[in-house]
Amino acid sequence: MKIHQKYMLRCIEIAQNGLGIAAPNPMVGAVIVYNDEIIGEGFTSAYGKSHAEVNAIQSVRDKTLLKKATLYVTLEPCCHYGKTPPCADLIIDHQIPHVVVGVLDPNEKVAGKGIEKLKKFGCDVTCGILEKECREHHKRFLTFYEKKRPYIILKWAETLDGFIAPEKGKRGSNPEPYWITNARSRQMVHQWRTEELGILVGTNTVLEDNPKLDARHWKGKNPFRIILDKDLKIPEDYHVLDESIPTMLLTEVEEVKKDTKGEIHYQYLDFSMDLAKQICEILPGYNLTSILIEGGSKTLQTFIDAGLWDEARVFTGNTSLTKGIKAPEFSGKLINSQNIESDHLKIYRND
Fold first, then answer.
1. Exposure pattern of 34-64 as b/e (b: 16+ CB <10 Å)?
2. Is residue 171 annotated as involved in ligand binding?
């Protein structure tokens, strides 16, 4: 393996520590090397705090070595003031002579300007090292800026005979989830919820299951709840309206338009038009770089039919129903398959 690739792989590895906490900033990884030895490394802190380059530079004990070192970073260093000062300026201030970048930042505030600034002050910049791997790592951030929409992950559980939920007569009298998967799979879903900024479900899912849509079975942030509720018929005592988590109701009730009541936001949609497209246009305004869509079948199918999805994570539980609500129909490239105790998980990419 070539030397640049070796250290860029390390950047990607440590950058994973920022998953779920750095967003909506990209989860960048940075490594500083002197004489073929890592002398500093860092990843992006929680949103609003230090970027990866800052953390890497601060971790170097002997700062005099920075003038002879190489900085590796998965994404182009920023050159604008946001919640923190520009990383490019810090690199220049420490006179780091060589910077190796995985992928360019598509944000129009950066978009090559960071590299241009570094070169202007005499820094030798190498770009495109493990670009494919860095693009995969930064898939949420890149989708948000290149496609102007969140990175969309579809998730559902289906039975061995292809049903996502039972017919109404097989459910209890009280609204509650009908579990197809085992406890370990359900815990994994809660982990995923901490990794994405938003979670979206349709009206029927809420009315039938009364879900909390939180991450109570995993340590981390709860996602922003997004609920399709055309006629605002979800009862006020349901979990999604308890204001414990910021929640948005997508509705056709014109009176509310863009109203906000406590932690409940209302957003108008025209339900006679392309719903998936409208939602993808609205969510960037809430700075949601990624969302997890958990159901129901109609909502999932809406995004599938519109071609507006990036991953599908499908559990198959060790059970059958014979009758019920059919699982969504889709096609995609299988990229991973594994057993989760008695369940089977397949992950697809929209190709």
1. beeebbbbbbbbeeeebbbbbbbbeebeeee
2. no
Alpha-carbon torsion angle 322, 326, 332, 337, nearest 10: -40
Positions of E strands within the chain? 29-34, 37-43, 70-75, 98-103, 124-127, 151-158, 163-165, 198-201, 224-228, 247-251, 260-261, 264-268, 290-295, 311-316, 325-326, 333-340, 343-349
CA distance 15 to 99: 17
The pairing of strands 151-158 and 311-316 is parallel
82 vs 7, more confident: 7
Q: 2: which residues sit within 8 A by CB, 6+ positions away? A: none
Closest CA to 32 of 23, 18, 45, 62: 62
- Kindly tell me if the per-residue pLDDT of 1 is higher than 60: no
Which residue has tokens 């994405």?
196
For the cut 80, the answer to whether the pLDDT of residue 81 exceeds it is no
Sequence ranges of the domains in the chain: 3-143, 150-349
Distance CA 259, CA 167 (A): 36
Contacts with 251 (C-beta within 8 Å, 6 or more apart), sequence order: 229, 230, 231, 232, 266, 267, 268, 269
Q: Is 116 annotated as a binding residue?
A: no
Class of domain 150-349: alpha beta
- Tell me if 186 is assigned to a ligand binding site: no
To which CATH superfamily is domain 3-143 assigned?
Answer: Cytidine Deaminase, domain 2 (3.40.140.10)
Of 298, 282, 16, 44, nearest in space to 150 by CA: 282
Judging by beta carbons within 10 Å of its beta carbon (0-12, 13-18, 19+), is residue 109 exposed, middle or buried? middle
pTM of the model: 0.93
* Catalytic machinery residues: 53
The answer on whether 312 is annotated among ligand-binding residues is no
